[in-house]
Design brief:
This protein has 651 residues and is an alpha+beta fold. It contains 15 helices and 12 strands. The protein folds into 5 domains: 16-65, no CATH class; 68-156; 208-258, no CATH class; 265-396, no CATH class; 454-595, no CATH class. It has helices spanning 36-67, 70-81, 100-105, 123-129, 145-156, 190-200, 211-223, 229-241, 246-258, 260-273, 292-303, 308-317, 345-368, 387-396, 410-434; strands at residues 16-18, 25-27, 454-473, 475-476, 480-481, 485-486, 488-493, 509-512, 537-538, 545-563, 575-583, 590-595. The strands form 4 sheets. Strands 3, 7, 8, 10, 11 and 12 form a 6-stranded antiparallel beta sheet that branches. It has a two-stranded antiparallel ribbon with strand order 1-2.
């Protein structure tokens, strides 16, 4: 293999030596001489040359490391390109680059940003080198190559940031009067302190209040109410007749502090602090009907002189201390209810975080006097609250929900026991009533009732009073069972020439079970002789109502007729089941026509059907229709003739 000469030496085919330090080739001939002294001289000369090259290269490397000076090379980059977002006035993402301690701590989500001696683990270099414009810093442009290289070399060689050169100083945010313990005053009472300040400013006290003025002031101050005449007379009498009149003042204060009005007066201030309201807040501001137990708890706590530390604990963990109403504090803040937020997962998660944020903020503002909500996104810029502190506090209340809870107390326990007892009694009474219920008619014959005009004829009946009772009505297409409506009700006798004797113009008086009054619907319209929906009667009960007609004299009645809308425009609210009664007087009424509902009206709490006594081992219930949803049954009871529920599993 031939060696190639990269220097000035020619390839003579003679032996060459390679110096591994410099990578250069040295002709071995240059080391040879005819005299030993010359040989040594040449050898030392060559070695000195090689060492000089190595020393020069080493010195160049040292110079490069020493050339990066923080004040001269690095801080100007920070000042020009970073301080606008990462200095004392603003710390985007929690990163601050104008202060050594803060810079090496790093940002909220990627600290530390500067790792001395390790460029690969320093996010700062990753941001300035990024080709992704959404991540690159600065956001609007890129640093030039020389600036990036300076940052790279600075971090690689230890990220030297000398102490004492920062133009700003780190502020201890806990060094504030509000975070220090109260100092014991050496100046005596508050009156002594006020008096001294008045004298310093050349002021004097106002004249002492008269007894009546004092009584009014202290009574208004402690209860929010003026003193009564009796209280005023009693107080003045104590002053006039008691040689120890000064005790009368203390007696008034003690009496007012013991008054229930004291708690009611001063509770409002605490309720203002915790943002209490009877509504949920925000622009929706829906009613919060069960907010009052917490209000009453605060009143009671003040009247009972509850120690403040206990007062705090009860409001945070009252459910664990047997004081459930106190935890109403946690949900006094505003919240959007489930029906007021979006249905997508993102909206639900955001609403939940907002609800927890309201709780955390309320705790901070109420008990700490700090607006710690800023730490939801970043360390607080002024108060000593970090994001870690914020989410640690949020974790404490993460299980709290804005909802009603069962109120546990001896009073409610007694009411529950009484409710169970009353329910058992009502079941016994109900079963007794069920025995008189009509037989169920699950397969009634089809009924045809016209909505424009429906007539019922019967044998001649002597009567002066006619009562028309509606037992059921057809279902509205979207509203379901609603209030029935009658356009015109007519009564005919055996004398054809008399015509409709129910008309008000003939002197007939009409009364109703109840009416939904409007310009188009009134009870007096049912027998005014005018047809159409705009002149009709509407009941005020869904699927039920009655009309009663008192004729001017007794007549032989043979027919009645009515319609929902005689013009045929409307067919909703049409009666589908009814009962017609006649009589000479109210105590002599008798049923002359009846069309009962196909089955009793459906009640979501209890549906009862009585069937003829039948010996059987099996009973089958078939659900044929529902209110547009999947059918669901809570429990099915089957009773025998003795009133025993034979459908119970243990029966």
């Amino acid at each position: 293999m031939k060696h190639r000469d990269t220097g000035k030496h020619r390839d003579t085919g003679k032996h060459r030596e390679t110096n591994t330090l410099t990578g250069n080739l040295c002709d071995s001939q240059c080391l040879r001489g005819n005299h030993p002294t010359e040989q040594r001289r040449k050898l030392w000369s060559c070695n000195a040359w090689l060492l000089g090259i190595a020393g020069a290269m080493l010195s160049i490397g040292l110079c490069d490391a020493q050339e990066i000076d923080f004040v001269r090379d690095i801080r100007p980059i920070f000042v020009e390109h970073c301080y606008s977002c990462h200095s004392a006035s603003e710390q985007e993402s929690g990163l601050r680059l104008d202060l050594k301690s803060a810079a090496f701590k790093g940002g909220d989500k990627h600290g530390p940003d500067i790792v001395a001696g390790d460029t690969a683990k320093s996010p700062l270099l990753g941001f300035v080198n990024s080709t992704d414009q959404t991540k690159r810093m600065p956001p609007d442009y890129a640093l030039d190559a020389k600036q990036i290289e300076k940052l790279n070399q600075w971090i690689e060689h230890g990220a030297v940031w000398p102490d004492g050169i920062d133009s700003v100083s780190d502020i201890d945010r806990t060094d504030h009067w509000s975070f220090k313990q109260l100092a014991v005053s050496t100046q005596g009472s508050i009156d002594t302190l006020v008096g001294a300040k008045l004298r310093e400013n050349g002021l004097t006290r106002s004249p002492p209040a008269t007894p009546i003025q004092w009584l009014r002031r202290v009574t208004y101050g402690l209860t929010g109410l003026p003193p009564t005449g009796d209280e005023t007379d009693t107080f003045m009498g104590r002053l006039n007749n008691n040689p120890m009149a000064e005790t009368a003042y203390a007696e008034v204060v003690d009496r007012l502090l013991a008054s229930p009005r004291y708690g009611e007066r001063w509770a409002q201030h605490w309720l203002d602090v915790v943002r209490f309201a009877d509504t949920h807040g925000f622009e929706v501001n829906t009613e919060r009907p069960n907010a009052w137990p917490y209000r009453d708890y605060v009143i009671r706590a003040l009247n009972e002189d509850t120690p403040y530390d206990q007062f705090i604990r009860e409001q945070l963990v009252g459910d664990g201390l047997g004081v459930d109403p106190a935890t109403g504090f946690l949900v006094t803040a505003s919240v959007l209810l489930p029906g007021q937020i979006g249905k997508d997962a993102e909206s639900i998660r955001l609403a939940r975080q907002d609800a927890l944020d309201e709780i955390v903020n309320n705790i901070g503002q109420t008990f700490l006097g700090l607006s710690i909500g800023c730490a939801r996104c970043h360390d607080h810029k002024f108060d000593p609250v970090t994001s870690i502190d914020y989410y640690a506090m949020q974790a404490m209340v993460a299980g709290v929900e804005y909802d009603d809870r069962e109120w546990r107390s001896e009073e409610t326990a007694n009411k529950k026991r009484r409710a169970v007892m009353l329910h058992e009694k009502s079941e016994i009474v109900q079963r007794s009533i069920d025995e008189f219920a009509p037989i169920a008619r699950p397969k009634s014959a089809p009924r045809i009732i016209r909505s424009d005009k429906h007539s019922v004829e019967f044998e001649k009946q002597r009567a002066r009073i006619v009562r028309f009772e509606i037992l059921d009505a057809n279902l509205h297409s979207s509203l379901g069972l609603i209030e029935p409506c009658i356009d015109e009700f007519e009564i005919y006798s055996d004398k054809e020439l008399e015509g409709n004797i129910a008309l008000a113009s003939n002197g007939t008086i009409v009364t109703a079970s109840g009416s939904t009054e409007s310009g188009s619907h009134q009870a007096r319209f049912v027998n005014d002789g005018n047809f159409g929906n705009d002149s009709s009667w509407m009941s005020n009960a869904k699927g039920y109502g009655w009309l009663q007609f008192e004729l001017p004299k007794e007549s032989n009645i043979t027919q009645v007729a009515w319609g929902r809308d005689r013009t045929g425009k409307f067919d909703d609210r049409t009666p589908t089941a009814y009962r017609i009664q006649l009589g000479e007087s109210l105590d002599k009424m008798r049923v002359v026509a009846e069309l009962l509902p196909e089955r009793p009206a459906v009640d979501r709490k209890r549906i009862h059907d009585r069937i003829p006594s039948t010996l059987t081992q099996r009973l089958r219930l078939t659900i044929q229709a529902t209110n547009s949803l999947e059918p669901c049954t809570d429990d099915i009871d089957v009773f025998n003739r003795n009133g025993k529920n034979v459908a119970v599993h243990s029966a």
